[in-house]
């Protein structure tokens, strides 16, 4: 027998005896160990079930949370599906929303229908209306030369007004912007018109809004600072009550560049004193005015010259 084996065995036996003594003869020791574990398990299970039920009810019918109507105008281009998918991945994480996708087309496309129907947003409407030919961007014009999405957004306004009992908040979300999901918590609390700063807008890292105690005091912008509301379209949300009260309010084609936002808000009878400062008194960036670079497709002809074609894919690119 190794010289220390008896000592090791004695120590193990002593520990086992002590453990059995406390476990078998002192019930309060068992209770002291088990009760906190059981209580924590039951409490965690109950809380988890409650949260799941709350989120499920909010997402399914909006009875708990005000519904956010997200208006997205979209048009045909190679990156359209990618951008709609990215936006949908954000919206799918937000409860109690209805996505209004308005396609710039004479008829609905299967690409848009398939994308919004299979990306996770449970409540949506697919509308379509084409931009007049004389208002379409020409190939020789820069991307900012003509206002985009005017007729499509106006159609969404009409759809929202069709039901006078419809309540909630409207937000115009372009499919190429980038959104933090926390922005929608700010949007949902809108009583009339809420505002926040937008990054990469107006030729600045972000266009500034001077806010204090939930009120807008002024603007810090470089692009046309004389605008009544020097905001980006992604920088505000509107309570549907205003749309119902002002049925003639809409966007227009014949408007000076940068004034669409001011046109819409003034036609709704909004004053600066009505604006509600969100995003921690306009000090937090929750939306970025991004643009996806068009994909380089200059080798399509080269592939054809070599007698090659890409293999088919399921659905749309």
From TrEMBL:
Mn(2+) binds at residue 176. It holds the Pfam family Glyco_transf_43. The active site is at 261 (proton donor/acceptor). GO terms for biological process: carbohydrate metabolic process; chondroitin sulfate proteoglycan biosynthetic process. Keywords: Glycoprotein, Golgi apparatus, Manganese, Membrane, Metal-binding, Signal-anchor, Transferase, Transmembrane, Transmembrane helix. One of its GO terms (cellular component) is Golgi membrane. SUPFAM superfamilies: Nucleotide-diphospho-sugar transferases (SSF53448). It is a single-pass type II membrane protein. The keyword Acyltransferase does not apply. It is found in: Golgi apparatus membrane; Membrane. The record marks 207, 299 as: Interaction with galactose moiety of substrate glycoprotein. Its cofactor is Mn(2+). GO terms for molecular function: galactosylgalactosylxylosylprotein 3-beta-glucuronosyltransferase activity; metal ion binding. The keyword Manganese applies. It catalyses: 3-O-(beta-D-galactosyl-(1->3)-beta-D-galactosyl-(1->4)-beta-D-xylosyl)-L-seryl-[protein] + UDP-alpha-D-glucuronate = 3-O-(beta-D-GlcA-(1->3)-beta-D-Gal-(1->3)-beta-D-Gal-(1->4)-beta-D-Xyl)-L-seryl-[protein] + UDP + H(+). Its main location: Golgi. CDD domains: GlcAT-I. The chain crosses the membrane at residues 31-51. Its EC number is 2.4.1.135. It comes from the Eukaryota. Pathway: Protein modification; protein glycosylation. Belongs to the glycosyltransferase 43 family. This is Galactosylgalactosylxylosylprotein 3-beta-glucuronosyltransferase.
């Amino acid at each position: 027998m190794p010289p220390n084996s008896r000592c090791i065995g004695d120590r193990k036996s002593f520990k086992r005896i002590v453990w059995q003594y406390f476990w078998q003869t002192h019930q309060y020791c068992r209770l002291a160990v088990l009760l906190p574990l059981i209580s924590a398990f039951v409490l965690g299970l109950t809380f988890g079930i409650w949260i799941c039920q709350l989120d499920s009810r909010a997402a399914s019918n909006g009875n708990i949370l005000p519904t956010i109507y997200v208006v997205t105008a979209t048009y045909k281009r190679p990156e359209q599906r990618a951008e709609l998918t990215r936006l949908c991945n954000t919206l799918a994480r937000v409860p109690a929303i209805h996505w209004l996708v308005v396609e710039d087309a004479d008829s609905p496309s299967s690409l848009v229908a398939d994308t919004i129907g299979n990306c996770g947003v449970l409540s949506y409407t697919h509308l379509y209306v084409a931009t007049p030919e004389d208002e379409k961007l020409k190939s020789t014009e820069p991307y900012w030369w003509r206002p985009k999405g005017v007729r499509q957004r106006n159609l969404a306004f009409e759809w929202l007004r069709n039901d006078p009992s419809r309540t909630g908040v409207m937000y115009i979300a372009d499919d190429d912007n980038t959104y933090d999901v926390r922005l929608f918590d700010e949007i949902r609390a809108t009583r009339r018109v809420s505002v926040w700063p937008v990054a990469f807008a107006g030729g600045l890292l972000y266009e500034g809004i001077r806010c204090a105690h939930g009120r807008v005091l002024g603007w810090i912008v470089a692009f046309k600072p004389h605008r009544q509301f020097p905001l980006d379209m992604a920088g505000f949300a509107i309570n549907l009550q205003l749309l119902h009260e002002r049925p003639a309010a809409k966007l227009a084609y014949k408007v000076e560049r940068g004034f669409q936002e001011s046109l819409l808000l003034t036609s709704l009878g909004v004053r600066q004193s009505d604006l509600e400062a969100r995003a921690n008194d306009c000090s937090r960036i929750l939306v970025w005015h991004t643009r996806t670079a068009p994909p380089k497709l200059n080798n399509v002809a080269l592939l054809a010259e070599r007698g090659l074609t890409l293999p088919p894919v399921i659905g749309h690119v």
